[in-house]
Amino acid sequence: MGRWARVIPDCSAKTQGMRTDTEIGGATMRAMKTGARPVLFGAFDRHNFGDLLFPHLLAALLPDQRFVFRGLAARDLRRFGGHRVRPLASGSPHLVHVGGELLTCSAWQAAVMLRDAGETDALVARYDAHPADAAKWAADQLGTTRTMPYVAGRALLAPKGKLIFNAVGGVEWHALTPGQREEVKNALEAADWLSVRDHVTQDALRRDGVVATLCPDPAVMLRQCFGARLEARARGGAVRAVRAAFPQGYLACQFSGDFADEASLDALAGGLGDAAATSGLGIVLFRAGAAPWHDDLALYEKVRARLPPGRGRLFTSLHVWDICALIAASRGTIASSLHARIAALAFALPRVSLRKPQADSGQPDKVAAFAETWEPEGLPHGVVPAEIGTATARALATPVGVLHDNTEAVCAACRASVAHWAGLLGATRLGQ
Questions:
Q1: What's the domain count of the chain?
Q2: In whole angstroms, what is the distance from residue 91 CA to residue 95 CA?
Q3: In Å, how far from its chain's centre is CA 138?
Q4: Is 306 a member of any domain?
Q5: Do residue 414 and residue 379 come from a single domain?
Q6: Interatomic CA distance for residues 329 and 234, integer angstroms
Q7: pTM over 0.85, yes/no
Q8: pLDDT truncated to tens, each residue of the chain (432 aa)?
Q9: CATH number, position 419
Q10: Domain identity same for 74 and 132
Q11: Same domain for 206 and 333
Q12: Is residue 262 domain-shared with residue 391, that is, in the same domain?
């Protein structure tokens, strides 16, 4: 078994003596209802599957709490199933970092990902060789001098406010400059609660003197929080058409723009074709993000055209609930996206994760770090395109009981951790 079998009891033990489904502190909660709303803060100000899910999940887990939604820029992503987001300002009564790879996202990266995808190449060409100019441009765009802008410190809180970091990630901690690490450390050391979603981040922080507990990514709660909604959504609209096209079932497949070269596209098409041939399932290509440096529809068109006739289909919806419903109704996923994998985990489905062509095979990426921390051995990750067929067969052969037990255990660990910091905010109960 993987690391998850060892770490889950530790997370659950942190809430001994605490009720997660009944009253925790009614007087405190009544006081909070009369005051300013706590802030959910994260990168859900751009179109990325996992980031868009986080505020939905935490709001569902804390149903008696009313939040405001803050990012780095004013954006309205409701047409994609997201939220209307405003820039973070000072004076927050409580501030919850909702999750994601926030600890290592630089100001330059954040600023570019908040622009239109068509501007990316020009921005990189202009600033790639001029880091000082890039930093100034990013600060001007974001309205903050924080070099790691998705990490907010206590200075932005009202007096006595609580600062929470929930299941954040930072597997590229080693790549930060000393100044960037120091900025993030100062914020983390001032936090009232700090959990990270993988052992790589936890170990890196520990080496720098920062102690963090482990908590699974909130997306593991998708089925528990929104199962009925997604089941209903899968019966209509875009997902219904996919199910009709592949009555025998399908694999939900995604890949990032890192696979843009022709050799990678050929290899992907070959590997996905192998998976379709050995499983008898259809291949449905979906995007998990439309922000810069995410997924490119033109590349998906190329891969679909190279698949065997009748085997491939494009799923064009970018609505977060359509993507969730597509995965939930599938027989499994093949993806480079971490949250495509986690969504499959939430529904106890087989999953295969792709290794990006430029990835350092000696350093775990965020997908490998999460899988090593929370999943049983044998569910493939770090798979190159040529191995997709055999990896998919192995994943589909995983016993159903193993998948279900893993999902239940990881969800229990997530609920236990969230219950701990929710109590710091005065929440009365956790939702289903």
A1: 2
A2: 10
A3: 24
A4: yes
A5: no
A6: 7
A7: yes
A8: 345 433 433 333 333 333 333 233 333 333 344 358 999 999 999 999 999 999 999 999 999 999 999 999 999 999 999 999 999 999 999 999 999 999 999 999 999 988 887 888 899 889 988 989 999 999 999 999 999 999 999 999 999 999 999 999 999 999 999 999 999 999 999 999 999 999 999 999 999 999 999 999 999 999 999 999 999 999 988 999 999 999 999 999 999 999 999 999 999 999 999 999 999 999 999 999 888 878 899 999 999 999 999 999 999 999 999 999 999 999 999 999 999 999 999 999 999 999 998 877 678 999 999 999 999 988 999 999 999 999 999 999 999 999 999 999 999 999 999 999 999 988 878 886
A9: 3.40.50
A10: yes
A11: no
A12: yes
| Amino acid letter for position 161 | G
- The amino acid at residue 190 is A
